[in-house]
Every structure is written in structure tokens, then in C-alpha cells.
Amino acid sequence: MEMKPMIPARHAGKAFKSVIPVSILVLGLVAFMAYATPPNFQLPFDIKVLPKFHAMLNAGVSMMLIGSFIAIKRRNIMAHMMMNMMALMMSAAFLISYVVYHTFSESTVFGDIDHNGLLSETEREAVGGLRLIYVIILLSHIGLAAIIFPIILYTFMSAFTAQFGMHKKLVKWTMPLWLYVSITGVIIYFMISPYYG
Question: What angle do CA 104, 122, 113 make, to 5 degrees?
């Protein structure tokens, strides 16, 4: 099946050049919102549902990526494209929801049994080495999420512009890193969920 570019060749350069500014803008916004003081504003829903929603989105992304990999190995290009688009849309929904959550709520501290936002010596001893494992998973998740974001955009742009040689090279990095980020997102949720206030 001959694939036609979704983005015409004359616009491909502009599309690729937009990836870096978009990535900087989005990642800068996420970083700002994560550390900004929550506004004094009441949302029309309970914000505490969002972490579970994030875990569900990450699980969905993981399933779509695995399904996409299986589809392309079977040369089912349409299923491959649809699952990747679903993974991208779920990741975008996650990003928006993540920003909303961290804009309107305080960060949760792993091991904070009494939900006061601080980790006492007793709480630290109670969680023991599990906290170190959590921090390692969390830092690798956050670091790779920031790195993979522009790579995902480049990978999609290469497919949309029918530059399949570049697409195949990029996807060797994109797929495993994106899958790692989505799976660790679910693991992080299950590890920290007992400490949500």
C-alpha cells in the first residue's frame, strides 16, 4: 500500500521546524505549572480523580503502542496508524490533565502517611528502601518524558510527510522510550496512590 504524505512536501520543512519551539513551550508550561502556587479557584469536579485517570491514560497508551508494534509487524499499516494516533491523543489528554492537576493541587510526597505534605523520620523509616525505588522510577519517568516529547513529534512528522526511512530510524528510539514512560506512569500511580490525601 503506497502511503501518501499527510503533510505536503512544501510544508514539511515548516512542520519539522515547529517541533522544537512547540516542545520548549509545552515543557516550559508543564514545569511552570508543576511549581506554581495553586490558584484559589474551585474546579467543577473533584481533582482527586485525575491521578487515576492519568494511570488509565498511560495504560491505554501502553496498549496502543504494543498493538501498533504488532500491527506493523503484520504489515497492517492502517491499524498501526490508528493505534499510534490513539496513543498520541491519549498522551495529549494526559498532558493537559496533568497540567490541570498540578496547577490546582499540591504535590503528593511518597511515604507521607498523615498527608501533611512532609516526610517525618518515622514515615521515612516506614517506607524504607521503597522510597529510593520510587524516586529512581519517578526521575527516569520525568526525564525520559521530557526527552521523548520532541522525538514523538519528529516521529509523527516523518510519517505524516512520508519520510519512512527517517520514520523507521526514529521509531527504534521512540517506541521503547514512549512505552517505558507510559508503563512507569502506571507504576508510579500505584506506588504513590496510598499517599494521596
Answer: 35
- Does the predicted TM-score (pTM) go above 0.90? no
Closest Cα partner for 162 from 8, 5, 7? 5
Residue count of the chain, please give it: 197
Please provide residue 76's backbone torsions phi and psi, each rounded to the nearest 5 degrees.
-95, 85
Cell of 25: 513551550
**Which three three-digit cell numbers place residue 34?**
508543576
Q: What are phi and psi of 61, to 5 degrees?
A: -60, -45
Q: Convert the pLDDT of each residue in 127-170 to its tens digit.
A: 989 999 999 999 999 999 988 988 898 898 888 787 888 889 99
Q: What is the pLDDT of residues 69-128, one digit of tens each?
A: 999 999 999 999 999 999 999 999 998 898 888 888 878 889 888 888 888 898 889 998
* Spatial CA neighbour of 7 closest among 140, 159, 185: 159
Cell of 177: 522510550
Distance CA(44)–CA(103), nearest Å, equals 15
Q: What is the DSSP letter of 162?
A: T
The half-sphere exposure of 89 on its side-chain side, counting CA atoms within 13 A, is: 7
